[in-house]
């Protein structure tokens, strides 16, 4: 069985539309996938023609933080019609749009020229613009060789073009996911540093053991899941961005037997 429970589309900061991504998933032989866009469920609620050839678990990746570190919470089996969830997504989109324009202004103050009309057009159509989108625009303009270089130079947290934004607390994210009937899973714990011990004290339902940034630490995070009685999750965090692993759907693999309890959650 091939599974990928962490994937992004153009509804947040991915390269492919929901339709394109599900088609690629079928072509790659995925059996189960989760489109888990950042702070939006648009892939499930805006009439996208999702390929029925792959089992799709409704999901979202919520943004939080602790002591200066980004903390992301994956919600699985979400009721996409839940009013509180929809309100959260709507408000977050508004804040993200205002933040995007502030980032553009900071880039321009640093001497980087961006196509404001292009950005405003995306926003006017209800689209999302975040740091990855702006980074790709800077690469296209020839200012940087790739997206990684943009983040390293100006868009890293605290960088000269970075604009912070207010996020819900970890517990608020977990509570909202539970209100929407879902499971709350800590995303890519390998990206956390000093904050990790504190973050692990929160009442998650699971932990994303298998992730490209967790490689070499699978056993460590499996032990956390066993100790706490948490579900084991896994996914590639696929965005489709050139230079960011994985660049193709289906090439990140892991032991899907470990995630079987999560896959069976709604079938009990």
UniProtKB/TrEMBL annotation:
The organism's place on the tree of life at top rank: Bacteria
Domain Polymerase/histidinol phosphatase N-terminal: 3-66
CDD domains the UniProt entry points to: PHP_HisPPase_AMP (cd07438)
Gene Ontology molecular function: 5'-3' DNA exonuclease activity; 5'-3' RNA exonuclease activity
A Pfam cross-reference name: PHP
PANTHER family for this protein: EXONUCLEASE, POLYMERASE_HISTIDINOL PHOSPHATASE N-TERMINAL DOMAIN-CONTAINING PROTEIN
Record's protein name: PHP domain-containing protein
Organism of this sequence: Megasphaera stantonii
């Amino acid at each position: 069985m091939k599974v990928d429970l962490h994937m992004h589309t153009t509804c947040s900061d991915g390269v492919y539309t929901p339709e394109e991504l599900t088609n690629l998933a079928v072509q790659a032989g995925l059996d189960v996938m989760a489109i888990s866009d950042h702070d939006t469920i648009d892939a499930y609620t805006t009439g996208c023609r999702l390929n029925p050839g792959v089992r799709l678990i409704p999901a979202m990746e919520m943004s939080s933080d602790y002591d200066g570190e980004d903390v992301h919470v994956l919600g699985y089996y979400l009721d996409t019609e839940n009013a509180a969830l929809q309100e959260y997504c709507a408000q977050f989109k508004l804040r993200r749009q205002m933040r995007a324009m502030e980032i553009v202004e900071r880039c321009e103050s640093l001497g980087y020229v961006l196509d404001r009309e292009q950005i405003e057009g995306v926003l006017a159509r209800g689209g999302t613009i975040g740091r990855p989108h702006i980074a790709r625009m800077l690469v296209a303009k020839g200012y940087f060789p790739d997206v990684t270089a943009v983040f390293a130079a100006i868009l890293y947290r605290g960088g000269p073009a970075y604009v912070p934004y207010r996020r819900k607390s970890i517990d608020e994210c977990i509570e909202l996911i539970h209100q929407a009937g879902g499971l709350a899973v800590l995303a890519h714990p390998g990206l956390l540093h000093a904050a990790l011990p504190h973050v692990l004290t929160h009442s998650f339902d699971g932990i994303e053991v298998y992730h490209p940034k967790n490689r070499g630490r699978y056993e460590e995070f499996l032990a956390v899941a066993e100790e706490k009685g948490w579900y084991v999750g896994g996914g590639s965090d696929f965005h489709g961005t050139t230079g960011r692993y994985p660049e193709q759907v289906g090439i990140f693999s892991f032991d899907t037997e470990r995630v079987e309890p999560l896959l069976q959650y709604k079938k009990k």
